[in-house]
Write a structure and sequence with these properties.
Elements lengths: L1 E10 L2 E11 L4 E6 L5 H10 L4 E2 L2 E2 L5 H7 E4 L11 H6 L14 H13 L15 H14 L4 E5 L7 H16 L4 E5 L3 H4 L5 E6 L2 E6 H12 L2
Parallel strand pairs: 3-8, 3-9, 6-7, 7-8
Antiparallel strand pairs: 1-2, 1-4, 4-5, 9-10
Helix pairs in contact: 4-5, 5-6
Length: 229
């Protein structure tokens, strides 16, 4: 579903990655890890902006903006807290690639939004103002928005940041369900390695301008080596 072959990435004048490759299949959950400033967010951004990245079998450059939005959903570190914006309205934003030009929801869109909210365990929060949600609750809603977008690929930048420990594990289990039960390709950057290890199929590790992709069992050894230095 995601094919990145021998690309280099820079941030300003600084080289982040050299000759990086990443191949992720449908139904695979992969954690992207590295030290602060290693380039995790830069890599995630590249997966949605570089024309030579292949997404769902096609070069990104060949996909229209609408098709990209129907193929890849992104959950950023941004926390949307807008007064009078209800939970279901925020999740419904995920239907934008499918609605008409005025964004009018059809019955099928409302059904998809409802199921997405249910999938993240937030059905009892329908009608709540998003500004009243905790960080963990809001993160679940942001993931629900990505689910409502109905894309085969979901990218998430630090989805467990600022959450308490139990919620970090819950979010990782939710991502595992999306990959293993729904067949989605899920890649998320994280510092919460302990929460990621039990559920991830593989890890993508950034170290010293190099990207390594390893099955979880092998990645554990490499991660211990890197982070104990």
């Amino acid at each position: 579903m995601i094919h990145l072959d021998n690309i280099s990435l820079s941030y300003g004048s600084r080289t982040i990655l050299r000759d990086a490759s990443l191949h992720l299949a449908a139904g695979e959950l992969c954690a992207l890890v590295g030290r602060n400033g290693a380039g995790k967010s830069t890599l995630l951004k590249a997966l949605t902006s570089r024309g030579d990245v292949r997404i769902a079998g096609a070069p990104l450059a060949e996909l229209s903006a609408e098709k990209r939005a129907q193929t890849v959903a992104i959950v950023t570190t941004e926390r949307i807290r807008i007064e009078n914006l209800r939970v279901e309205e925020l999740v419904a934003m995920g239907r934008a690639p499918y609605t008409n030009w005025v964004g009018h929801l059809q019955d099928i869109d409302r059904e998809i939004v409802g199921k997405a909210i249910e999938a993240v365990g937030m059905s009892s929060f329908v009608g709540r103002d998003t500004s009243s949600l905790s960080d963990g609750e809001l993160q679940r809603v942001m993931i629900a928005r990505a689910i409502a977008q109905q894309t085969p690929i979901i990218l998430l930048d630090e989805p467990t940041a600022f959450l308490d420990i139990p919620t970090r594990f819950e979010v990782c289990r939710l991502l595992a369900d999306l990959a293993h039960k729904e067949g989605k390709t899920v890649l998320f950057s994280t510092h919460d390695i302990d929460a990621a290890i039990p559920v991830c199929d593989s890890f993508a590790i950034i170290e010293q301008e190099r990207l390594s992709q390893l099955p979880t069992a092998e990645a554990i050894i490499e991660i211990e080596r890197i982070f104990k230095q």
